[in-house]
Amino acid sequence: MEKDQIEILEETTNSDIFTNNLNAILSVKKDYEKKEYDYEWIDIIDETLPYLDNILRNPKRFIVNEEEVVQVEKSKKVTVESIIHLTQHTNYIQKIEDNGDVKPSKILNINKEESLDTYENRFIFTLINNTRTFFEQRKAVTGEYSYFKDKKELKYEANTLVGPEEVEISLEISSRKEAKLDTEEQSTHESVADRLKRIKIQLDGFMGTELMQTLSKLHVPPVRSPIRKTNVILKNPNFQKAESLWNYIQMYEEKNVNEKEHKDYYDESDLKKEYNQAFLMLYLANLTLDHKTQELTEQKLLSQMLNRVIENILDSNYEITEKEVKELFDKQLKLIKAANEEKKKKIRKLLLEKLENEQDNYMKDWKMLEETRIC
Questions:
Q1: What's the CA angle centered on 32, arms 26 and 35, to 5 degrees?
Q2: How many Cβ atoms sit within 10 Å of the Cβ of residue 156?
């Protein structure tokens, strides 16, 4: 580099000619999305499943009396009710024997059968069907995990004049970050996906129980809110838990966090200034390609970099003292030196291990060769 160019460089550094002639554009695109789902509904259903299982294993039944007047020879059993009915319907008496025995032609026959068609059972039948529907709807909305996505694209284009020299730069940087948010139960180490599978298996299993199969075939009407406060529902712990689930589903409010942000703009903040400074640093670094000014440029580059670091420190804490700055540099210098020493040790260890392996292989090959010769 000629003397006048060196003077231009000095002038550039000192009077900011480089920056004054700088034309720069920093375009930024940002896309951010975060979906954090509320999985409380899984806890509520999961907690209630054992209580529903208790009810389905021992469903409440009641006795149904089916009354039918039949020919006396078809009657299976004569009960007190049959006699009372006959006294009220004397037209069914065929004749009365001389000894006073009554011979009826027809008689009331009562069949007693157990039935599952109770209000409490219809409540459980409706609750399980509603829970399955609610479960599938929530699963479709939330999936098996929460997540976030963060994508950034920056494009920096600039040009400047340093004396007769034209300098241009074009730089593009893109970054993308995606991650699942922690959805594992700390106590059980069971993921949301595993819990959903397990709950679905249990709910599907409920559909094969006697209560669900029987009431389904009877096409019983679904129970609707408000739930009748029968003694069983009020006092039975299993039914109390079932009613809590019913109320939760009926009053459910979504609490999911859904954040989304899209920005596409030209940046004029301190970030652009940082890129302008980086452009200047790169320009100064490239001047080392000229061997005549290599030493001068390296000194200038180091000086510029140190100046910039100190400026950043002062910008963040203007009241910092010279002693504190020195202590900060000394501490960081020690950390970097220690890290470098650790790297050297690891490299040295790897090289030694490699050398030992090579020696072992060589000795094995030599031994095999000797054994071959002896044979």
A1: 175
A2: 21
Q: pTM for this one?
A: 0.54
Cα-Cα-Cα-Cα dihedral sign, residues 212, 215, 218, 220: negative
Distances in Å between the alpha carbon of 256 and those of 14, 179, 253?
56, 17, 9
Which pLDDT value is given to residue 182?
A: 62
**374 within some domain:** no
Rg (C-alpha) for the chain, rounded Å, is 44
**Same domain flag for 178 and 227:** yes
Q: Are residues 190 and 52 in the same domain?
A: yes
Asked if the structure places residue 351 within a domain, the reply is no
C-beta neighbour count of 151 within 10 angstroms:
15
What is the count of structural domains for the chain?
Answer: 2
Q: Tokens representing 298? A: 């390296």
Residue 253 in domain: yes
**What span, in angstroms and rounded, lies between the C-alpha atoms of 150 and 154?**
13
SS3 119: helix
| 108 and 140 both lie in a single domain | no
Asked whether residue 198 is domain-assigned, the answer is yes
Domain with 38, as residue range(s), is 22-61+118-267
* Cβ contact 177:149 at 8 Å: yes
Same domain, 184 and 36: yes
Query: Strand locations in the chain, DSSP E?
Result: 23-36, 62-71, 93-96, 102-104, 106-115, 147-162, 165-180, 257-266
- CA angle 101-103-108, nearest 5°? 120
d(Cα 285, Cα 280) in Å, to the nearest integer? 9
Q: What is the pLDDT of residues 141-198, one digit of tens each?
A: 888 788 889 999 999 999 998 878 888 999 999 999 888 776 555 555 788 889 999 9
Residue type, 295: E
Q: Which of 267, 298, 331 is the last residue of a domain?
A: 267
29-68: pLDDT as tens digits: 999 998 888 889 999 999 999 999 999 998 988 755 555 6
